[in-house]
Write a structure and sequence with these properties.
heterodimer, A: 110 residues, eight-stranded antiparallel β-barrel, globular, B: 655 residues, alpha/beta, 22% helix
């Protein structure tokens, strides 16, 4: 089990994820001060032929009574125990106003 | 539990989910994006008096060994039991490519994948042309006029594409020229590139990576650390090497040749691509119906393995055409033809191979073990009541009579005068006095197949696919992507190739009454996409009869997004294309003394390994040693001396 703690340079977005050796990802994703509990999976690069990059996806929501939902995919560079950066795309759908917001950026170790 | 089934208007994104959990708060199911299905799970919250909007998020992957991950967030409108609309934003992360992709759509219920719009599929598989070589000059603006937002066309116009001239080349280009740009083939040249480029695995590695290291021995011109994307920079280098080693042994090609030196054999021609005006039949069909601009062949190599990938989803570890005896061992592997034949006595599905090749259908040789029960004659020499192999003339009459089977696989003529569009070997003399070339002859065959379908009573229920087995050494600028290999356990890996990357792009055109004009499919497809799509369709007819034959097929995208018209077009909207004009003296030209090409020799050699040939030898009616055959005339005499090996029709069938 490894912990990925990375944040964007403007501190708008960050992740704190526990990465299991067999692929599960769990933890928290923050965007603009809002925290989402997320779960998903990942695959380590070069662990099988053709898997040239480490890639992942997570989904989750806030704990609010009127929740917002988040879905994110990313490409991770570096070792699974100590990522050096993550390229991330995420979308947030809001139960409160019916909008979907998009964010993309690079996360670096916090 | 509720079921959500919604799709974007163009079916690029299809959502199929059911709700689960004690409060129905869990979402389980699939997202299908550009023909690839992702297993996903997620969660949602329904709107109520307190919560103004229903929202959800989910994530998952495509389930292959080198997966692409997908995640999506959305807003759902309507009741949870029957959503009326979903606004969705999707992102994907690819472990093979390292790319992040985004897609936005509105999903609505009531969609169909439209695979029920056809009862008959006709595949015309031609030979050895890349996408750029034949279709690269289409849509010079990079997209059809009035194309939907986000559509593009990956051709050659405006991209400043070129390949370097290798340093130290014996006949160098003019001073100052260090690279050769893509340019159009000259008008009236229907045999470019001449002579034939290299097409075996080692040659294609040079074309992809511009490295010569080992040739047909390890490492087969493959860089020790393969770059993730090929630079597509070695076509000139390889063309020169192949010319010296294979086509004109010991001679060096010139850079260019003056027009009076017909045929033109300069090495700059490998960078030439046909202008649309040279291919009015193919480019009209591609414009008036659909063209796929990212269809990759199954293997970066030759005919036999790529044709095997189309109909069997594997080449059983084989990378090159020969030796034919090895192919006969592995050719017992299952095919889509066998699946159809096994689908049951009450199954409405059936198949035929219509071959225009004289004396032997190549499909019957590639799949000798699997398809022997369906050859024209039994090994004892008597006609086979279960024959599935017919000539091209029979295709034309079956089409006219509305008697096409569910699956028609149409072969061109491979033996000179070959109309398969394969670049001709040195000294082939196909152009002879008539100056036609395989490309013009191929245009005629495409026209014949299209016209037969256009006039068929089953026109509106027929899907025509025109494609190519491989790129054949012709220039293309798009690096082939990595891919899921087929099941290879128990098979040797010829030339150490692990089948984790696709071959180079080939043209793929689809014609149907349910395809709108100017349709361009940008999604990545490969030869496995054919079986994937047909399995999806035919499993509805005979449930469970069409499991994916290999992991490659299972992972392939299906091409159902090509159906872009909800209603069939009237006959008046099927374009009438002028018949290609072949000079009259072509039909009376004697090709019997033309030297046999490597490909033609491989056909003869494979034919000699069949039970029919063994029986003919036993009866003393086919006694020639095939190794002594040197000309087209001798090859045809030999094939005709083996009774029942395949259909044999006069050249007039193409008139």
């Amino acid at each position: 089990m490894a912990e990925w703690r990375l944040v964007s340079s403007d501190h708008r977005c960050g992740v704190s994820l526990e990465a299991g050796d067999d692929g599960p990802l769990t933890g928290a994703l923050t965007l603009d001060g809002q925290t989402y509990n997320v779960a998903g999976g990942w695959d380590a690069s070069f662990s099988v032929p053709g898997r040239n990059f480490s890639a992942f996806a997570v989904f989750g929501k806030t704990g609010n009574p009127i929740p917002d939902f988040v879905a994110a995919t990313g490409i991770m560079t570096g070792g699974g125990t100590a990522p050096t950066d993550i390229g991330i795309m995420l979308d947030v759908s809001s139960c409160s106003d019916g909008t979907i917001q998009h964010y993309e950026g690079i996360l670096i170790p916090a | 539990m509720a079921l959500w089934k919604l799709a974007s208007h163009d079916r690029i994104l299809i959502l199929e989910l059911h709700t689960a959990g004690s409060e129905d708060e869990i979402l389980l199911g699939t997202l299908t994006y550009k023909g690839i299905t992702y297993g996903v799970s997620g969660t949602w919250t329904a709107s109520n008096a307190v919560i103004p909007h229903s929202a959800f998020s989910l994530a998952g992957n495509d389930g292959v060994s080198a997966p692409t991950w997908i995640a999506a967030a959305g807003i759902m409108t309507g009741p949870g039991t029957a959503p009326q609309r979903i606004d969705i934003q999707v992102s994907l992360s690819s472990s093979p490519e390292g790319s992040l992709t985004r897609y936005i759509a509105v999903l609505l219920p009531g969609f169909s994948d439209m695979l029920d719009t056809f009862d008959n599929v006709v595949v015309l598989m031609l030979e050895n042309r890349s996408f750029d070589n034949l279709l690269g000059y289409m849509y010079p603006n990079g997209v059809p006029d009035n194309a939907p937002l986000g559509k593009s066309f990956e051709g050659v116009t405006g991209k400043n594409l070129s390949n370097p001239v290798p340093p130290g080349v014996k006949n160098p280009p003019p001073p100052g020229v260090t690279s050769i740009p893509v340019s159009p083939v000259a008008a009236g040249n229907y045999f470019q590139p001449y002579p034939d480029p290299g097409e075996t695995y080692d040659h294609i590695n040079t074309q992809l990576f511009n490295l010569i290291d080992g040739g047909d021995q390890p490492p087969y011109n493959l860089p020790s650390e393969r770059p993730l994307k090929a630079n597509m920079n070695g076509f000139v280098n390889d063309y020169i090497e192949n010319y010296k080693a294979e086509e004109e042994k010991g001679k060096d090609p010139t850079y260019d040749a003056p027009p009076q030196e017909f045929p033109w054999t300069g090495y700059k021609q490998i960078m030439e691509c046909y202008p649309t005006s040279a291919l009015p039949v193919m480019t009209t069909l591609a414009e008036q119906f659909a063209v796929f601009d990212h269809w990759f062949c199954g293997v970066p190599s030759q005919t036999w393995c790529n044709r095997a990938f189309w109909n069997a989803g594997t080449s059983w570890g084989r990378v090159v055409n020969g030796p034919s005896l090895d192919w006969t061992v592995d050719s017992v592997g299952d095919t889509i033809f066998n699946q159809i034949s096994r689908s049951g006595l009450t199954s409405p599905l059936n198949w035929k191979v219509y071959s225009a090749n004289p004396g032997a259908a190549v499909t019957s040789l590639i799949h000798l073990g699997a398809l022997l029960p369906y050859h024209p004659t039994l090994p004892s020499g008597i006609p086979n009541p279960f024959n599935h192999f017919y000539g091209f003339g029979r295709f034309l009459t079956d089409c006219a009579a509305g008697r096409l089977p569910s699956y028609s696989f149409v072969e061109p003529r491979f033996i000179t005068p070959h109309n398969d569009m394969h670049p001709s070997s040195a000294h082939s003399l196909l152009f002879g006095k008539s100056n036609v070339g395989s490309v013009l002859l191929g245009e005629l065959m495409v026209w014949q197949v299209y016209e037969a379908i256009r006039k068929s009573p089953n026109r509106d229920k027929t899907l025509l696919i025109i494609t190519f087995d491989e790129h054949g050494g012709c220039y293309d600028h798009v690096p082939p992507p990595d891919v899921t290999p087929p099941n290879l356990k128990g098979y040797g890996l010829e030339d150490n190739f692990d089948f984790t990357r696709l071959g180079i792009r080939v043209p793929a055109i689809m014609v149907s009454s349910y395809i709108a004009k100017n349709t361009v499919v940008n999604a990545r497809m490969d030869h496995g996409s054919f079986m994937k799509t047909m399995s999806k369709k035919w499993n509805r007819v005979v449930p469970g009869a069409f499991p994916p034959l290999t992991a490659r097929v299972g992972a392939a995208p299906d091409f159902s997004e090509v159906f872009t018209s909800a209603t069939p077009r009237p006959l008046s909207d099927w374009p009438e294309i002028p018949k290609p004009v072949i000079p009259q003296d072509f039909w009376t030209t004697d090709f019997s003394q033309v030297p046999l090409s490597k490909f033609e020799r491989e056909i003869v050699d494979a034919a000699s390994k069949t039970p029919e040939a063994a029986n003919a030898r036993k009866r003393g009616i086919s006694v020639r040693d095939p190794a002594t055959i040197g000309t087209v005339g001798e090859a045809l005499d030999y094939l005709r001396s083996i009774p029942g090996l395949g259909p044999d029709e006069p050249l007039d069938v193409f008139k």
